[in-house]
């Protein structure tokens, strides 16, 4: 063991690191106290007007964000150290700390200087001769592990990382640890191939393909933290959107970013992407599949076009006993010029209405205002305006205009479309009758697959009356505030201000008008970024991350694409695990309609979750799914063989209940079963804090110490993608796997099972 001098004392590495760690915590405490003091000062300081108040709130927000980062770094503050050949030392941790002379004490794991900690090897050491992993608990150093990366020294027998893995012991410790029910940060043990993805450029679309347990979710979240650190100014304004497969999954991953000190991220499922509704209506897979097809974009476009109606016969309406006649040709012309404006349906509506109403007004004027002697029209501008008003006030005309070109919300459009066979046949002639039958329904509650359709419709319809009224009211409020502030600024009350303030007042008055000030107030909106983004369908994010991206349909990709016109995205998934009807089984096919070939691919091949014993069995299923696919290689084996028990349907649920309760001794238990057995199994197990019963769709992205797969045959037959579902179910465990129910042939043929003695 090496020893170090501290004054006259001789310190071993653990003691030496303890000295450093104590100093880091002292600095962290100091920073925290300073930030809290600043915040308290801001909170008590008086403000003269609303503008100053907003600026103050902004400063308090920044200080709060700083405080959360400092607090988040408390556990595991420092976890690594790099030594170079010249004796320079770099400590690596959850954030950067400096001493009073602004000399670096601790380097943020995301800083470029920290990178060798994750990628240096003895062959390519990036100038590092020793990498040290520091294990701590609370504020104490428990242990250190060194990897010598100096080729000459390592050749002489110093410790070498095994299997190309960085920090093998620490990594295995983390992988073998019992799961807590929520995902944890992997910041101490990120591996080189993962690091490359985390630090990949912000620009462009990065697709990360990797088998089960390769760390895709973990990487996606650490990438978000990295991007926020590296491009903070750019991303803080627009935020990052993370889309996950279901609410349980979002809960599972929800703590990772806050634990890394980052909260400028909005996590949603597709069902919540459309503001104002959560789409939870269940529907059969074949309906979901039709709704997800790319062709639905054309169907929605045609449904909108169909609502711009040209009658086949002239229509007569009576205004104050005068009969007016609207010819199809006039409507056709008005529609043509409104469409030529290339704007949305609702925004084009006033232009259409104006043309039609102009025509009716002229006709009305001709009929009632013509001089019987010389045929000249006796009405002046004022009279024409009055006639126009009269026409517009006539209910029959209003009804007619609403028929010809109605103001529509996306919800109205879809309810009308899916509730009417004729409309559907006209909008979707390219769909088979059976497909159209799948779409036909009544009611106005929404399924997740409706969300991209609503979004598509919203894009074509534009804001409706209600949206416009709301936006106008908000803006009027902001302008009223701003006007009030300007009055205060320019009023005689300014005698309270000293000379400097007076100058400020003048410049404010000179520079700003109420509109500009209103914009500034809107920017100073008190809501968090995630709340503002959630309320605004047209919000565009600085970066979008999609997890389990293989599950998205072409229509969902269009909706996601709209959230990020800059096309800065990270899409992680595994095309061998696709379960959703309408999901993709090839990245090229799934992404081409929306993104063409403008994306880059990164692949992960090492499985950090599933032990080799389990993965060997799951690989049989994968070969059945795709003979060319290669299962990821497990980084560890546990020596525990998976087991199965053939238990028929009558006793199955009871048996599962008994075994699940036994398995709890090994940690968190996940019971994954077919949809048809779900309720029975749930009943047999009852409420238990450490047992979760779910279907494969609900288990997407999750993991448990011990997994029981119940009714594998049922899982296989319940979906056309049943084999992939079985593959997902088998790969959810970190330690132990048991399969209950008759084994399907694909599993029966595999070696490596233990038969559980009843
Ligand atoms: N470098 C690492 N250090 C420690 N743990 C890791 C590392 N990489 C991955 N893991 C762990 O491996 C497990 C699987 O990771 P994750 O869930 O991100 O995989 P995934 O590729 O998204 O899996 P799936 O596609 O099956 O849902 C998690 O517990 C994660 O914390």
TrEMBL record:
It comes from the Bacteria. GO terms for cellular component: cytosol. One of its GO terms (biological process) is recombinational repair. ATP binds at residues 210-217. PROSITE patterns: UVRD_HELICASE_ATP_BIND. One of its GO terms (molecular function) is ATP binding. Residues 189-611 form the UvrD-like helicase ATP-binding domain. Keywords: ATP-binding, Helicase, Hydrolase, Nucleotide-binding. Gene3D superfamilies: P-loop containing nucleotide triphosphate hydrolases. InterPro entries: DNA_helicase_UvrD/REP (IPR000212), P-loop_NTPase (IPR027417), UvrD-like_ATP-bd (IPR014016). PANTHER family: DNA 3'-5' HELICASE, UVRD / RECB / PCRA DNA HELICASE FAMILY MEMBER. This is DNA helicase IV.
